[in-house]
């Protein structure tokens, strides 16, 4: 289905929902999908009504000088991106009752709880179901991770950005993986370092990491989280 007309509240609401859990329209970095969507808006969405869409719009605005070089097909309309379908319930009380996927799967695996089954069969079924649930609970869940885009700002245009990045990448924390980086112009010849990183949420505190980066006082003025998305 794709996005609706961004000149309508319905269209901007779809964008708000889409970027609530995403930093970009498609993938893990800015692309022509973001450019097309950005240009379709008459201006930044109202922050009080569409805070996530406003955040996405402001973040994309920092890439305007790079729009033509971003990956993707610039000929595609913004309406080709976004949700594949929209399902709405006019009245919440009319919505069908949700069925827990695990309960449905468990019942299917061990037969229906039919009142006509004899006591032995029912007992056997309950034992099998209990054993299955215990086995599922014993499985280790994969660690929750987030991908973060961080801006690291130097003091001035004379700051050695190579040394800054070397000091940053020398930081080693269990659960932290450094990714790609680039220099982004700010003003008056000053450039900030924009770096991507992946963190395990339970092992790495973003606040503590920022403090550790900012402890390089000879090079770093400040840090900001430009974008963050759960993997």
Structure notes:
The chain is of the alpha+beta class and 231 residues long. Helix content is 34%, strand content 19%. It has 7 helices and 4 strands, in the order H-H-H-H-H-E-H-E-E-H-E. The chain has helices at residues 9-20, 32-40, 51-61, 101-110, 119-137, 161-169, 206-214, and strands at 145-154, 176-187, 190-200, 220-230. Strands 2-3-1-4 form a 4-stranded antiparallel β-sheet, with helices on one face. A hairpin with a 2-residue loop joins strand 2 and strand 3. The longest helix is centred in the middle third of the chain and has 19 residues, at 119-137. The radius of gyration is 25 Å and the shape is flat. The protein starts with 8 loop residues before the first helix and ends with a strand. The model is unreliable at 86-96 (pLDDT under 50).
Any descriptors?
34% helix; 231 residues; alpha+beta; four-stranded antiparallel sheet; single chain
Shape: flat
Mean pLDDT: 84
Percentage of residues assigned to helices: 25-40%
**Total number of β-strand segments?**
4
In brief:
The protein has 231 residues and is of the alpha+beta class.
Write the layout of secondary structure elements.
Elements: H1 9-20, H2 32-40, H3 51-61, H4 101-110, H5 119-137, E1 145-154, H6 161-169, E2 176-187, E3 190-200, H7 206-214, E4 220-230
Antiparallel strand pairs: 1-3, 1-4, 2-3
Helix pairs in contact: 1-3, 4-5
């Amino acid at each position: 289905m794709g996005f609706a007309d961004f000149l309508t509240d319905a269209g901007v609401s779809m964008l708000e929902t889409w970027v609530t859990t995403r930093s970009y329209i498609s993938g893990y970095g800015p692309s022509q999908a973001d450019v097309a969507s950005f240009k379709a808006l008459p201006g930044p969405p109202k922050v009080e009504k569409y805070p996530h869409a406003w955040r996405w719009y402001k973040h994309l605005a920092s890439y305007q000088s790079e729009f033509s070089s971003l990956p993707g097909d610039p000929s595609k309309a913004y309406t080709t991106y976004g949700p594949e379908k929209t399902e709405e319930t006019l009245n919440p009380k009319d919505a069908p009752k949700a069925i827990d996927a695990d309960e449905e799967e468990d019942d299917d695996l061990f037969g229906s709880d039919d009142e006509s089954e004899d006591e032995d069969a029912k007992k056997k079924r309950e034992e099998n179901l209990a054993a299955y649930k215990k086995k599922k609970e014993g499985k280790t869940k994969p660690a929750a991770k987030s991908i973060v885009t961080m801006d690291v700002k130097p003091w001035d245009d004379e700051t050695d950005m190579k040394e800054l990045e070397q000091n940053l990448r020398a930081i080693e924390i269990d659960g932290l993986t450094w990714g790609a980086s680039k220099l982004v112009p700010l003003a008056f010849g000053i450039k900030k370092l924009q770096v991507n990183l992946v963190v395990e949420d339970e092992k790495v505190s973003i606040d503590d990491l920022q403090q550790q980066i900012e402890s390089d006082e000879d090079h770093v003025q400040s840090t900001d989280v430009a974008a963050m998305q759960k993997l």
